[in-house]
Design brief:
The chain has 2 helices and 2 strands. The chain has about 100 residues and is an alpha+beta fold. Strands 1-2 form a two-stranded antiparallel ribbon.
Length: about 100
Amino acid sequence: MSRTSHVRLLPWCGADGQPAHLVTDGTESRLSRLADSIEATQLDTGREVLKLSRAMLQSLERPTAGELFYVTQRLTECLTDALRVAESRGLRIPAYEA
């Protein structure tokens, strides 16, 4: 019985800045567990940055332009990570066969 190759988008880029992929036979490896852990951390970080940015925007003190720029950078990074996680997980959903 031959095993099918599985390609997984990893939550980091290669040295060249291009998306990194892991090719496996479908079994869990140390690298795939590491990727799962990093994805969970990225999503937790996104939740925390969103919570802090909401608090900053709801504060009675108006944020400075520098503070708004900083929070926009962090939110952009978190959104990028979340979209990569969503893409990676979406690619791993098996096709539905009726």
